[in-house]
Amino acid sequence: MTLKSPFLMIRSDAAGLATIQVVNRHLCVVRMVQIAAVLAVVALSACTSSTAPSTTSSSSGSPQPSPKLTTYTAADFATALAWAPDKRLFYAERSGTIRTFDGTTRHTFATVSTSTEGERGLLGLAISPTFDKDHFVYAFYSRADDLTRQRVVRWLDRDGIGTNVTTIIDNLPAGPDCCHKGGRIAFGPDGKLYVTMGENHMAAEAQNTASLRGKILRYNPDGTVPDDNPFGRGNPVWAIGLRNPFGLAFSPDGKLLVTDNGPSGDAGTPGSGWDEVDLVVRGGNYQWPTCFGDGRHLQGLYCVGSLPTWQSGSEDVVPTGATFVSQKGPSGYQGTFVFCSYSEARLKVMSSDGTRPLFDGPRCQLDVKEGPDHALYLSDTSSIYRFGP
What we know:
Number of domains: 1
Largest sheet: 4 strands, antiparallel
Radius of gyration: 20 Å
CATH superfamily: TolB, C-terminal domain
Number of helices: 2
CATH architecture: 6 Propeller
Strand order of the largest sheet: 4-29-28-27
Number of strands: 29
Structural class: mainly beta
Distance between the termini: 42 Å
């Protein structure tokens, strides 16, 4: 069975071998491989694909410089990135620390007590859309005191330090086993907070509108539930039928695209492939577990819900963080939808509607955001990179 995961750790032992502990999408295993094999993976180019464009012309007709990849700052498994209006980069390290970096100095903003067992950890980060007024910073993490629960908290940013921490959403399910925790958060153009939730290896729950598992959730910024959610008063569910959504991004015109990790042998599925991008709408249903990929039947009498805008077929991509690139973004990337591939350690560049792959970009495994300087900022397990002129 092919193993897939957004979390992979490498260590060496005394025998000169490397142990790669892979948190699979549906089980955790440890296997031994030769150091040479590990180095082959690590040596994957950190620059752009040969198919990536090198220059484009500006509106005035003059060529723009090619973007280059440089290390912006070291970071320990930066699962999520978020820019504040004052041009500080906030980033969440999976082990429980939120830091800021202004291009010169790093500061610790806040810490949480989280578990990194399986796919747990500090997984999501968002800046209030009214940060200039309220100075709120939000995060999603798996609880260390109860491995079956996760929560969303909010801090007040006071002189660069997180204060007045408040739990605004508690008891989000994490399930008893390793995987499918979701954990991404983002504010939509409607000012609401959107949260991704994996189905915790309880596939049938993804179709149950009364369950939070396998869903996109929608909340008010204070953690209450909006009255106009589609499945009844007090129900935070916005969309159903997802397996392990780990990236979400809003387009300039308000469309929501979500990256969802495909099956890996669970619920009777193939052991690899079928990762997808979904156009998520109010009350939408995205097949799982009745079907997967391009409508391949799995359970029940027939497929329910909508096909993805794109799916990877039998190829493993393991999609994570995503964003839309503005028309001022790096040369050749303007107006595209992009997401990180954990398994390929590449930025996947797609058409703006998320239907068509264009080319592979620079190194990226965990998250990607466009900065105030319109460069792209990308993270992997050890660093955050800047990609721009």
